[in-house]
Specification:
Elements: H1 3-16, E1 29-39, E2 42-51, H2 64-75, E3 84-89, E4 92-97, E5 103-108, E6 118-125, E7 138-143, E8 152-155, H3 169-178, H4 190-198, E9 204-211, H5 215-224, E10 232-235, H6 247-257, E11 263-268, H7 273-283, E12 288-294, H8 304-310, E13 318-321, H9 324-333
Parallel strand pairs: 1-7, 8-9, 8-11, 9-10, 11-12, 12-13
Antiparallel strand pairs: 1-2, 2-5, 3-4, 3-6, 6-7
Helix pairs in contact: 6-7
């Protein structure tokens, strides 16, 4: 059984024990903001309504048990469907309704007050919900690339910036459930490479198949290890809701919303990044400057990445890299650093 399916089955078993459509007022209502991105072409923001206490942050010296309890809490979610919310940003507003899994995706026009590098807005209840007291608005942050940006970066997360071992299911599960942003390890040189690519102006977008339940952990990990701040595009492991978007679609959204930017794509060889990125290059041949794939396969001779390379036939460089230093050297040769 694959790692993603195992985690999905765990979440499904947990949700079967939770009441998702109760009529009583939520005890721990919260709106999770997943940040957003936008520019002259418009804005897209994502969020989720839940009835759970907000997980605590990791602390120095905490034990494995505390980390495991926090991770489990991230998956013990009571999703709130049918919640009417209002999103306000840069002088624009839109009303949305959460889907069956509590998710919302909102698209807004580019308001006059949209500014780089980040524009703040709010998301709040649009009307009474089950008679509960109205909580204060939740802040949302939207990444707005500056006119001076030379390019954008789209990067995977697991086994690309953070050591996960997705192909080793047991190792992956132990790390996921017993680690924290303080104990999990980035690949050597990755944070420095990303900071140099970003150069304080080029936007970075993190697109991963990790579940939205880990958004808080991944955000804290990137911050703790000083990766450039950027929106995270994750996915739900269950159902067909707004949270279960495919990686192709999320990357195309980024390219479509920022038509003036070329992009660098960074991923790993462990799963489907080479094939996905090849599809993106075929559909946007003039928008991609380079594709970098970190080699993490248990069997580097399985031929999957090599098949992509053999049929590449593009002017866009496709680099299978042993480490961050190899990416750095090639990026320097292209003038990206």
């Amino acid at each position: 059984m694959g790692a993603g399916r195992w985690v999905a089955n765990l979440e499904r078993a947990v949700e079967a024990r939770l009441t998702r459509h109760a009529s009583s007022p939520p005890e721990n209502f919260r709106i999770d903001s997943y940040d957003g991105h936008g520019g002259p072409s418009g804005v897209v923001v994502r969020g989720r309504a839940l009835d759970n206490p907000r997980p605590t942050r990791a602390a120095d010296g905490e034990g494995v048990g505390a980390a495991a309890r926090r991770t489990l809490q991230n998956f013990l979610t009571r999703e709130l469907a049918g919640v009417r919310l209002t999103i306000r940003l840069a002088g624009e507003s839109v009303d949305v309704v959460t889907d069956a899994d509590g998710y919302v995706i909102a698209r807004l026009p580019a308001g006059d007050a949209l500014s780089s590098p980040w524009t703040s807005g709010t998301i709040e209840l649009a009307e009474d919900f089950r008679g509960m007291a109205v909580p204060p608005p939740t802040t949302i942050s939207v990444r707005v690339p500056a006119a001076q940006a030379a390019f954008g970066v789209v990067s995977d997360i697991d086994d690309t910036v953070i050591k996960t071992g997705v192909q080793r299911v047991g190792q992956m599960l132990v790390q996921t459930f017993t680690g924290s942003e303080l104990t999990r390890e980035p690949f050597p040189g990755a944070a420095e490479l990303y900071r140099d690519l970003a150069a304080d102006v080029n936007p970075v977008f993190y697109v991963s198949s990790s579940p939205w339940n880990l958004h808080g952990f991944l955000t804290a990990f990137l911050e703790h290890h000083e990766f450039p701040r950027g929106p995270l595009f994750l996915r739900d492991l269950l159902g067909t809701s707004a949270g279960r978007e495919q990686k192709h679609g999320r990357i195309r959204e980024i390219l479509d919303l920022h038509p003036g930017l070329p992009f660098v794509l960074i991923g790993d060889s462990g799963e489907k990044d080479p094939q996905i990125y090849a599809d993106i290059v075929r559909s946007h041949p003039d928008r991609i400057l380079a594709v970098y794939i970190r080699e993490v396969r248990l069997d580097p001779g399985d031929g999957r990445v090599e098949k992509v390379v053999e049929t590449w036939g593009r002017d866009v460089p496709f680099v299978l890299a042993a480490d961050s230093l190899a990416v750095r050297r090639h990026a320097e040769s292209l003038g990206l650093l």
